[in-house]
Design a protein that fits this description.
The structure holds two protein chains of two kinds. By secondary structure, chain A is an all-alpha fold. Chain A has helices at residues 7-34, 38-41, 56-63, 65-96, 104-116, 121-130, 137-141, 148-159, 163-171, 176-187, 189-204, 208-213, 222-231, 233-239, 246-249, 252-286. Classes of the chains: A mainly alpha, B mainly alpha.
Chain lengths: 289, 298
């Protein structure tokens, strides 16, 4: 590489190492805390390893029925929302990448304008209410289904596909639909995966839609359930039919830590595998056009 | 007509998406007219009485909204001043790292908080800041004669917590776009500069930063457009009545007054006020970018 290591290099490495430790420690701390014995954990301090290994906290989180229903709701919303969102976005973006389509400018302008201006929370809420979507999966999926940003990323990416590929298919008698589904989509796996990842993270972490649109607890997303547990471990437990004895009160902190871990571990497990996609995605997004 | 027929399949493809934008984006845009009504849910948008600018007058003459507006701007500006340069500095530091492996591991770690929801992060924050058992407070107690600070109910500290945790969540993710821009710089420029005796700082100042300029401008425009988005979910999940004075922002105000108290018209007026200012800001910054001979956002 460039030069030999000098003092500045070591200082930079030191700064970045410290930053990384600060970034990662909270998660490590919670993991060790959640695995600790509640009474010993209450003494506090740093946690390099669990204090008195104990899996009881996980047991009480997993015993909580609403965690499971929340998990189910979030999985359904994330899967359906991501598949629908990516498909409809791609269907919209592809024709917009065709420079000769009449009306293209109008549609692009119409979508672009939504990046500048929106109705805001109350009109959105009233719309969902008018459509009778309150308390349904539709309320969790539809309002955030498409974003102008994703459509423009896809449009730019489709525009980069060599026209010759489509021309030869057209000579073979393929129409625009066949070309889109058989040629353009398979060629665009990387960008589609990126958009899918962004969309999925958005749905999985969505908390506010539940607060806004969902009344019945059967349709609460995982984040809303987690929030309830985190903001008050004891009352959440007792309201879901688990009795809270005095000696269990102290364990509420480890239960919270276990809750954080239950929600974080799935992300930690998927994360390393998708990392290359999202870096690519931001790269595509940063190329304007 | 023949031309439209030729493109029939393409129009078929865009149909669901365009319908979506009409229903879920443009109808709510029309819905902002209730800001000029005395809207009641029973009479609906067609039957409610028109009151002109009365809702805005109530909003600005009332006690809470001016304070809410000020909070929004203060919190946002603090986040902008502290949080905007942070990812740039991180990207510059990462660029100086020679070991690919170290760079890769650091990037993996700093991107992570972006993927964690505010619900989880708020849980983590309140546990770490807990006045009795939180780790941060154990450190505070050590220096403060055993007295902890209840940060999350403290008007003095609450905004700082918002800014710091916002940087925690966003610094890594924000740096990606700059790292990408840096990686597209031709490495022979650096080599030539080194032959000419340019040191590390000179290289950053004369090569890297100029190459980042247009990216910085675009990110700045986007940030300006979002200046009235002071971090709705973050604040909603962390605040409490004891810090409303310093933490209540337009979005939380709209939520509490509109959704929870069913004060639809007035909170729509607050939301509309916010949308219009945001749009004006983004157009204005984009114009400025053009004047400075940058590409801007469009």
């Amino acid at each position: 590489m460039r030069r030999k290591y000098d003092v500045v290099d070591y200082v930079i490495i030191l700064i970045l190492t410290l930053l990384s430790l600060i970034m990662i420690y909270p998660f490590w701390h919670e993991m060790m805390y959640s695995l600790s014995d509640p009474v010993k954990a209450a003494s506090g301090g740093m946690f390099a390893v669990p204090k008195g290994l104990n899996l009881k906290s996980y047991w009480s989180v997993l015993r909580n029925k609403s965690v499971w229903t929340g998990f189910r709701v979030s999985v359904i919303v994330t899967l359906v929302g991501t598949v629908m969102g990516v498909l409809v976005s791609a269907m919209l973006a592809y024709p917009l990448s065709k420079k000769d389509m009449p009306g293209r400018k109008f549609f692009i302008g119409m979508i672009f304008f939504t990046m500048l201006f929106g109705g805001g929370m109350i009109p959105n809420y009233l719309l969902v209410k008018e459509l009778h979507l309150i308390d349904s999966y539709g309320a969790l999926i539809l309002p955030g289904l498409l974003s102008a940003w994703n459509i423009f990323i896809l449009k730019n990416s489709f525009a980069g596909i060599p026209a010759s590929l489509e021309e030869s298919a057209r000579i073979d008698g393929a129409n625009d639909l066949t070309i889109f589904f058989r040629i353009v989509m398979p060629l665009s796996k990387a960008v589609l995966a990126t958009i899918a990842l962004f969309t999925a993270v958005g749905y999985w972490n969505d908390y506010f839609s539940t607060i806004l649109y969902i009344i019945s607890k059967d349709h609460w997303s995982l984040q809303a359930v987690l929030r309830e547990i985190l903001s008050n471990a004891q009352s959440a437990m007792s309201s879901s039919g688990i009795s809270v004895r005095a000696e269990e009160a102290i364990s509420s902190e480890t239960v919270k830590a276990a809750t954080v871990m239950v929600a974080t571990v799935p992300i930690l497990m998927v994360y390393p595998f998708v990392q290359k996609y999202f870096i690519k995605g931001v790269l595509i997004g940063s190329v304007k056009g | 007509m023949a031309k439209l027929w030729k493109y029939r399949y393409l129009y078929l493809l865009i149909l669901p998406g365009i319908l979506y934008f009409v229903i879920f984006r443009y109808i709510p845009m029309y819905g902002v007219v209730i800001a000029f009504q005395d809207f009641s849910i029973n009479k609906g948008i067609w039957g409610s009485k028109w009151v002109g600018l009365e809702q805005f007058r109530r909003l600005f003459l009332g006690l809470s909204f001016p304070a809410v507006f000020r909070n929004t701007v203060i919190i946002s500006l603090c986040k902008l001043v502290m949080g905007f340069p942070a990812p740039i500095i991180l990207a510059l530091l990462l660029n100086e790292v020679k070991s690919r492996k170290f760079k890769k591991i650091t990037q993996t770690i700093v991107y992570l908080p972006h993927f964690i929801s505010w619900v989880i992060l708020a849980g983590l924050i309140s546990m770490f800041l807990h006045p009795d058992t939180g780790l941060i407070n154990e450190i505070v107690k050590f220096f403060n004669d055993g007295k902890g600070i209840d940060f999350l109910v403290s008007k003095e500290y609450f905004r700082s917590i918002l800014v710091i945790t916002d940087i925690y969540k966003g610094i890594g993710w924000g740096s990606i776009v700059y790292i990408a821009a840096i990686s597209s710089i031709d490495s022979t420029i650096y080599e030539a500069a080194m032959v000419d005796g340019a040191g590390r700082l000179a290289q950053i100042w004369h090569i890297t930063l100029p190459a980042l300029k247009s990216t910085i401008v675009v990110m700045f425009i986007l940030n300006m457009g979002g200046i009235l988005n002071a971090g709705f979910e973050q604040i909603l999940l962390l605040y409490n009545p004891r810090v409303y004075d310093v933490a209540d922002i337009i979005d939380t105000y709209v939520y509490r007054n509109g959704i929870m108290s069913s004060n639809y018209s007035m909170s729509t007026a607050a939301g509309l006020f916010k949308s219009v200012i945001s749009m004006a800001l983004i157009i204005f910054t984009n114009k400025m970018a053009h004047l400075l001979e940058e590409d801007g956002l469009w």
